[in-house]
Structure formats: structure tokens, C-alpha cells
Predict the 3D structure of the following.
Amino acid sequence: MVAGPHRVGTLAEYAEKMDAQVARTRKLCTDQPQQQDVRTALLRAEKDIHRHGWDMPPTVFFLQQNLHTGRIRYTEFERFSRLLEELPGRHPDVLDRLADIAEFMRRQAHVPVAELDPAVQWLPPTFRDMVVKLRANPTADLFDVSGRHWRFHGVGMAYEGWMVLDVDDATEELARSHKLHSHPERIEVREVHYAARDGWIWEVTRLRRTPSIAVPRHCIALHRDNDYSVVGGIPHSLTRMCNAIASNPVPVVPATWPGDE
């Protein structure tokens, strides 16, 4: 589980803050209708995950967009999901290692054959085949399915974690030591983070319902150019991965957040 302290105080204050961000996201979707399709796809994906209940393993996924119809579809990246479970470490750290793999694959597409890193031979066959294919077209997406009229749109991750709203020094210390699960006022959450190739970062959050918690899920969009200059380690790593997959120049946002240091 990933620690996530929030300096908002009460559930009512949290809901008010999220409602304001949701309103801004809905305006974005009105001004840019293509973003509404992304919002719909992410909400549908979280709903499908929720049907399986809580205490589920994390999943890594990507969205693809049809070049003709604009329709967006969800596909789980099963190999990355398995690696996320099998590799030791916290989710942000493991996801950073997966981003390292994607960036390594991208770099190998641009060097002469004689200078290929020997580590390419140790990549899983699926990834090794991607490197070979990428060398024929170094600027293509790593997951190039253009022959079937689909284009990689972005990459995301769904996971469960803990959140504490009323943050003090003791709470931040628990977060830094990865013990937020022991906080008496912890709240269990499911979060879906998504980094799109156009630079938008999306987040769907659902609090686990209890007799005292009935806050609905929220879907918000953040952008590198607005006032969200700092995000957690997971959105940071997803942006790195998205950039490598799409040969993207989008800047990577900073990755500092209480508990992520």
C-alpha cells in the first residue's frame, strides 16, 4: 500500500477541495471534448476494477485511441503488472524501475548496432522484440499498433493505499517510514493515476466506504503548466514511461510528496 497524507483536515474539507478540482476538470472536458473521452474511459476502468472488490493487486494499463473514430480502449499491460507484484520495493520505486526499462529500450533504437547495450539480450522476449522493431522506425511508439488503426494514448496504474487527511509532524514521520497503515485515522483508498502523451495527468480516487465515510469517487486532470507543480512518485514515473513509449518531449513533473522521499 502507498502512503498518501493530505493537508486538508476533515472529510468535508477534502470533499470540498475535490469538488472544486472536479468542476475544473469538467470545464476542461467542455472546452476540449476529446478529453471527455479520456475521463469516461478512466472512470469506466476504475468501475470495472471496483467490481472485483477491495484488496486487489495493482495493475498497470495503457489506453489506445482509434485513429478514425476517436474511441478509447483500455488494455492491461499484464507483464508490467506482474513485475510490479514480483519486484521488491514500494510501488513508486518499482514503477521507476519499469520506467527505466522503457527508457532503456527507447535509447537502444538510436544507437548503431555495434554499440547496442549487451543488456538488450537480457530483456524479456516481448521487450527485446520491441527494440528490434523500434530500430526500423526509431520515432514510432514502443507499442506500435497503427496497422490496426490504434495509437498509444498513455499509461496508467491502479492501486490501493492509505490516506490521512489531518496531517501533523507525527503523520509525516509515519509516511516517511512507510507505516501510515498504523495511523488510527487512516482511510483506505483506490487510486488510478494516468499519464497521457499530451501532457495531462489524470487521477481517479475512491475512498473505501465505511459507516462514517460516504465520499464519492472523483476524477481530476492536472497539467504540467498549471499550479500542480509537484506530484507523487507514481505520476512522475508514469510520465517517464509514457514519454519513453511515445518518444515524447513532455517535461517530467517533480516527484516530491510527503512519504515519497
